[in-house]
Specification:
The chain is an alpha/beta fold. It is built from nine helices and nine strands. The protein binds guanosine-5'-diphosphate and magnesium ion. Guanosine-5'-diphosphate binds next to helix 1.
Length: 296
């Protein structure tokens, strides 16, 4: 039995979470074209007959501009310690740049084998790809260079095959039915946040926070209510939309996704609240007397 921990690192937006979802075949990490979408460390466990691979999706590594980013960055570095192998992902369409070099410099020191993943090859011509691979060979002594498309699933099976070559022969970390460390509460609130990011484009800052305030579940039905918290009145207006149309759309899309995830009917209510100058999620939960700490 091959098993091990593999972390996926790279600057924001290269497609780390998209790859994790593809490998696990379930959407455990939300994705968007905004930097800073992934805020916590997400484990996704891949199982097959001969292996168990624990993938670690990290918030993107980049030069921090403010405090939230610094915290996210620290988490990303941290995860390069306990793991067997690093997948360093770049967006090959965008090309290899300063931001990528910044990440590589951070992970080099870990003395782990690094596999370079060139993502988004669905977006680039073959000749161009070959040229870029040649250039990148000189950048560092990568264990492998693998071109792929996370979104289309191109070369993802080959990636798994290749990883097994590098993993130790050890027992499993988790039971076969354990797929992620993300508690249900987070799956629910993150899915709402994803729809907010998708539907409001750049109008809503990525610091928007969603909190679960009610939750009930039986065999056929999951009932949840989520409050979306922003710090300005005009953002609340945008989120609600004309005659409530925006909030309704956010709710519908999140509900459909959650029904797919939980494989049961979902009844979802959404609220928007303006809280000025709030500090952190934990403080908010406490202040509002909300649950949001639901155990599996
Ligand atoms: N064209 C293309 N887009 C992709 C691919 N993988 C991810 N994306 C898009 O890139 C954006 C960032 O993806 P995400 O997984 O959130 O990036 P992360 O910040 O590295 O986790 C999203 O809009 C994805 O849909 C790919 O293989 N091809
Ligand atoms: Mg991500």
């Amino acid at each position: 039995m091959k098993s091990g921990m593999v972390s996926i690192v790279g600057r924001p937006n290269v497609g780390k979470s998209t790859l994790l979802n593809k490998i696990i075949n379930k959407k455990i990490a939300i994705t968007s074209d905004k930097a800073g979408t992934t805020r916590n460390i997400i484990l996704g466990v891949y199982n097959d007959d001969e292996s168990q691979i624990v993938f670690v999706d990290t918030p993107g590594i980049h030069k921090p501009n403010h405090k939230l980013e610094k915290v996210m960055n620290d988490k990303a570095y941290l995860m390069t310690n306990d793991i067997d192998l690093i997948l360093f992902m770049v967006d090959i369409k965008k090309g290899y740049g300063k931001g990528d070099r910044f990440v590589l410099d951070r992970i080099k020191d870990s003395n782990k084998k690094i596999i370079l993943l060139l993502n988004k090859i669905d977006n680039i011509k073959k000749e161009e790809l070959i040229k870029k691979i040649d250039e990148l060979k000189n950048e560092y002594d990568f264990a492998e260079i693998i071109p792929l498309s996370a979104i289309k699933g191109i070369n993802v099976n080959d990636l798994i095959k290749t990883l097994k070559k590098y993993l130790p022969n050890e027992g499993k970390y988790f039971e076969d039915d354990y797929i992620t460390n993300q508690p249900k509460s987070l799956i629910i609130t993150e899915r709402v946040r994803e729809k907010v990011l998708h539907l409001t484009h750049d109008e809503i800052p990525h610091t928007v926070t969603c909190i679960l305030d009610e939750y009930e579940e039986d065999d056929d039905l999951l009932t949840a209510s989520v409050t979306i918290i922003v710090d300005r009145e005009n953002l609340k207006k945008i989120l609600i939309g004309k005659n409530g149309s925006m909030l309704k759309e956010i709710g519908t899309r999140a509900r459909l996704d959650l029904e797919d995830y939980f494989q049961k009917k979902v009844f979802l209510s959404l609220y928007v609240k303006v809280i000025k100058n709030w500090r952190d999620r934990e403080g908010l939960i406490h202040e509002l007397g909300l649950k949001d700490d639901l155990d599996e």
